[in-house]
Design a protein that fits this description.
271 residues; mainly alpha; 10 helices
Amino acid sequence: MHSVPAIELIAHRITWSLLLLVIVLAVQKKFGELRTAFLTKRSFALNLLASVLLAANWTIYVWAVNTNHILEASLGYFLTPLGNVALGYLLLHEHLRRVQWLAIAIAASGVLSLLFGLGTFPWIALSLAATWSGYAFLKKQSLLGPMAGLTMETLLLFPFAAAFLLWRNHTGEGALGHVDFRLHLLVLSVGVVTAVPLILFAYGARRIQLVTLGLLQYLTPTIQFLIGWLVYREKFSAVQFRSYALIWVALIIYTADAFWSHRHRLRAASA
């Protein structure tokens, strides 16, 4: 779908995701949960800001993929767990263990290696990590459940997305009605491709251990990396390998520490 502008794809993503999410909420009879978002100004502001970060993350990612920056996009999602730790320390005043500080320092050295080795600032990776970490932080503060929260976020974005799609269609620049049948199917499928994994994640997150969930979340950037490297043959220089290796080492250290800490808490609780 590289022939369709990233912003238009995101507008389709929001519109058709909302349709699917509304159907799911209707089947579950949980529309009442949406009222929670309007109970206080703080609750509404949290969901509004979360929707902006979500749209920004989606737009940057789609643009990166369609302009041959899949490897750097995958790096952004590798950095996200460490971004979550940093936000927890800065905004929630959570205590960081020495091992966590070590992981953050090694990851930072990997980013600096990219900066000085390639002479370019990895803004795609850092933007994706920052927006997704910020989104996760706001979700943690929200009173809404996963499904209701995502529905509210897409609902807040829908007026802008729908207006943009109508304007594109009016000017004759939009995809709908102006592309072939195959591309029509792909464009209309973005809602399902977006919503179904998020719905499954929301339900799965409640049924597996947090450490297991953390490990599974590395699958997405790993698959992205392999697609960019092996399928689309994006350039992967020695400088990139060295920088990515530092970040992967940081993630291994961070994950091992999280696993050990989780097991220690379980043993303490059982004792």
